[in-house]
Structures are given as structure tokens and as C-alpha cells.
């Protein structure tokens, strides 16, 4: 917890409470110490103590600084329990190597590679210490093999324990996010088949959100994957949304109030669907927050035009919220609005695209939709530049080739 108090936790990959951090680190440490005690009791070689299991698991779930911090006292305790300072030193070095081998980990196969690297480092250090102490060939070989085994065993232990800890502490790792981006995921397959226009819109929103997140130091993978799912609530009534309509709008036969209720309800439907399919909490929160308390302007104006008694309330045409609580949620909100507006822009030149993006970002800012997400004015400027760059690439002018003109 000292690491948390001193600000190391400021770089956590995902939001997590101090109590959850304490519980997670305590549980991981307890598992490690029990394994260490078992190794000593059953007379296994002390180099088999799986300290890199702790460091790699904590690195994936929290971050690298906390992983290294927790590894230091555990290395000292393992040296005391096994009565072998040399083994504690080797295990700590291997743990640090494991942390940096998993930097930006996104695939489970990287765990095997990290285990291999840890095993190789353990092997070299064990051989080095054995030669320094002038041990025999048998002891030298035994130490090297135990060191290699520790790396591989730790990697496979992480594979086994990772889903358990993710579930217990409601954490989502980059590995899980990447798996959710697979187009064979049931919800994405439904989106493709039942709301193809929304699916295409979501892909572009994902590209916009990913680029903007990288520009401001937010979690770009979370922003991209959440963008893929942010409009899943449109699946049930896909033909009521413009990107899926084929012909006359179904809203022509509805009152403005009824139309706005259908539009607004897609957020609630999306949250319910996400919970049904057990999507991670971070993605559910972005689905819930991606419109904040924004107004549905088109149907609000329609209601005002048909209102002769002045009874139209603006609150009835606003999403229920909450407003975006994270940078990623705010970026998805802005990307969603920008992509939708870009499709109706005539002659989308770079200058017009930039003006449109700036207008939308300013509008959300003035409407206080960005008050609770920790985005600075500098961040908003970077997001505007990023959106403009991506959209300029999407709407670039194509060269007319000779002989292909229609006659």
C-alpha cells in the first residue's frame, strides 16, 4: 500500500480502489508464500520458488512499478524461508525480467515467451553462481534446470490464475480486451448481421477513439474495443437509426417524443445486453456514458415546432447519463458524435472537417458533458487534431483515371 500512497497507482491500467489493490496484493502474496513453504517442506530446489509468477501476474493486472515493488519484500521473505540468499537474488532478477518481458502484453502467447526469457536468465545466473562457488557438474546442471523450470512454471501459473483474479476483482486486462475485439464474438456477429450500418459506424468510431487516446495518453485499446460495443443497444430496433435505414424513416409516423424515447433507450438496451453477455465493467460503463446527458437535437426541434402550448421540456429529450467519468468514455462520446456528423458533411475537405470537429468538441464542452472526465483543454486540442487527421484520410480525394469516365 506504500507504493499506492506514493503515487505508483497513478499508472494503473484500469480504475481500481485502494481496498481492492490491498486485497489483490495480499492474496497474491499469500499464494506465493504458501507455494514457497511447500517447496521448502518437500525439499525442492529453492530456485523453483515462482517469484516471477507474482511479478508477471501483478504487472498484467495492475502495472510494472507495483509488480517490482511487491517482488522486493517477497524475494527477501523467500530467501529467509528457504535459507538461501542466492536463490532469492536470482528469483528477484527473474521477476524483474518477467515484468519487462510483458510490457504492453496483448496476447496469451506472450506469457510463454516471457517465461522462456525468465528461464534463460535464471539459467545463466544459476550457472554463474554455481561456477563462482566451484560446484560440481551435477549441482551446476541441477541449478540451471530448476531455474529454467521456474520461468516456464510461472508463465503457466499466470495463465491459470489470471482469469480467476480478473473475475474476483472485476479487472479487465489488455489480453481480455483484444479477445473481445475478435469479430467472432457473439455480440459483434449480431451487430454485423442485424445492424450493419451501426457496425460500420462503430469501426470508424473505434479508429477515431484509438488515435485520439494515443494522443492524450489514455488506454487506446480500451477505447477502441469499447467503441465496437458502444451502440449494441441499437440491435433490437436497428431500423429506427439512420445508418441502418433503407428507404423512408420509420420516425415519420411517430411523434417527436416517441422517437426520442426510442433513440434514448438504445443506451439502456446496450447496458442490459452487455451485462447479459458478461462484458467487462469498463466497457459497460462506456456504453452507459457515451451520450452523457446530451440533448437529442433533431427530435427536440421537431417537438418545439409542433408545440403550441409551450409544454415541451428539454429534459425529456436528454439522455439520462451519467456523463463520461473517464478519458476513454469521453473520447468515445466525441468520436461517436464526430463520425455521425461527418457522414452528412458536404464536400468534406480537411478545413471543413476540422471546423466540424472543433464545433462538436466545443459544443460538448459548453454543454458540460466533459466536466467529470479529467480531459484538459490541451487534451481536447490534441483530440481535435487527431480526429481531423483520421477523417481526412477517410474522406481523401480519389484520382480520376483516364478511360474510366462514364459515357
What report would you give on this structure?
Helices cover about 65% and strands about 0% of the residues. The chain has two domains: about 1-170, Orthogonal Bundle (Arp2/3 complex 21 kDa subunit ARPC3), CATH 1.10.1760; about 175-395, Hypothetical protein af1432 (Orthogonal Bundle), CATH 1.10.3210. With about 400 residues, it is an all-alpha fold. It is built from 17 helices and no strands. The protein has helices spanning about 1-5, 20-40, 50-60, 65-80, 85-100, 110-130, 135-170, 175-180, 185-195, 195-215, 220-230, 255-275, 280-290, 295-305, 325-340, 350-365, 375-395.
Assigned CATH class of the largest domain: Mainly Alpha
- What general outline do the C-alpha atoms trace? elongated
Number of helices: 17
CA-CA gap between termini: 74 Å
CA gyration radius, whole angstroms: 27 Å
The tally of structural domains comes to 2
CATH architecture of the largest domain: Orthogonal Bundle
| Rounded mean pLDDT score | 87
What name does CATH use for the topology of the largest domain? Hypothetical protein af1432
Q: What structural class results from the helix and strand content?
A: mainly alpha
Oligomer: single chain
**Low-confidence residue ranges:** 1-11
Q: How much helicity do the residues have?
A: 55-70%
What percent of residues are in strands? under 5%
Number of strands: 0
Report the major sheet.
Answer: none
Instruction: Specify the CATH homologous superfamily of the largest domain.
Output: Hypothetical protein af1432
Order of helices and strands: HHHHHHHHHHHHHHHHH
Amino acid at each position: 500500500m506504500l507504493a499506492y500512497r506514493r503515487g505508483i497507482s497513478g499508472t494503473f491500467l484500469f480504475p481500481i480502489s485502494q481496498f481492492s489493490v490491498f486485497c489483490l496484493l495480499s492474496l497474491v502474496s499469500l499464494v506465493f508464500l504458501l507455494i514457497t513453504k511447500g517447496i521448502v517442506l518437500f525439499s525442492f530446489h529453492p530456485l523453483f520458488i515462482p517469484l516471477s509468477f507474482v511479478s508477471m501476474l501483478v504487472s498484467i493486472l495492475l502495472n510494472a512499478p507495483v509488480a517490482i515493488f511487491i517482488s522486493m519484500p517477497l524475494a527477501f521473505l523467500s530467501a529467509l524461508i528457504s535459507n538461501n540468499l542466492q536463490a532469492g537474488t536470482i528469483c528477484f532478477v527473474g521477476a524483474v525480467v518477467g515484468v519487462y518481458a510483458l510490457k504492453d502484453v496483448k496476447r496469451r502467447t506472450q506469457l510463454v515467451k516471457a517465461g522462456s526469457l525468465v528461464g534463460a536468465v535464471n539459467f545463466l545466473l544459476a550457472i554463474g553462481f554455481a561456477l563462482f562457488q566451484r560446484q560440481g557438474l551435477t549441482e551446476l546442471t541441477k541449478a540451471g534446470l530448476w531455474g529454467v523450470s521456474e520461468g516456464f512454471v510461472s508463465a503457466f501459473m499466470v495463465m491459470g490464475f489470471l482469469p480467476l483474479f480478473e473475475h474476483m476483482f472485476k479487472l479487465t486486462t489488455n489480453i481480455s480486451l483484444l479477445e473481445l475485439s475478435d469479430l467472432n464474438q457473439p455480440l459483434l456477429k449480431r451487430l454485423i448481421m442485424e445492424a450493419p450500418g451501426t457496425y460500420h459506424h462503430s469501426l470508424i468510431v473505434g479508429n477515431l477513439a484509438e488515435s485520439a487516446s494515443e494522443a492524450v495518453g489514455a488506454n487506446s485499446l480500451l477505447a477502441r474495443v469499447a467503441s465496437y460495443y458502444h451502440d449494441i443497444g441499437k440491435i433490437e430496433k436497428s431500423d429506427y437509426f439512420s445508418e441502418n435505414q433503407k428507404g423512408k424513416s420509420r420516425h415519420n409516423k411517430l411523434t417527436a417524443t416517441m422517437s426520442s424515447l426510442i433513440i434514448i433507450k438504445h443506451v439502456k438496451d446496450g447496458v442490459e445486453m452487455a451485462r447479459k453477455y458478461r462484458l467487462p465493467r469498463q466497457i459497460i460503463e462506456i456504453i452507459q456514458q457515451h451520450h452523457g446527458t446530451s440533448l437529442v437535437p433533431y427530435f427536440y426541434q421537431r417537438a418545439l415546432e409542433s408545440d403550441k402550448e409551450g409544454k415541451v421540456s428539454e429534459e425529456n429529450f436528454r439522455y439520462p447519463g451519467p456523463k463520461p467519468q473517464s478519458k476513454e468514455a469521453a473520447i468515445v462520446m466525441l468520436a461517436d458524435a464526430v463520425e455521425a456528423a461527418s457522414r452528412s458533411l458536404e464536400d468534406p475537405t480537411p478545413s471543413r472537417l476540422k471546423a466540424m470537429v472543433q464545433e462538436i468538441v466545443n459544443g460538448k464542452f459548453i454543454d458540460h458533458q466533459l466536466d467529470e472526465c479529467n480531459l484538459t483543454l490541451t487534451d481536447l486540442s490534441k483530440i481535435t487534431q487527431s480526429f481531423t487527421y483520421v477523417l481526412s484520410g477517410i474522406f481523401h480525394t480519389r484520382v480520376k483515371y483516364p478511360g474510366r469516365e462514364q459515357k
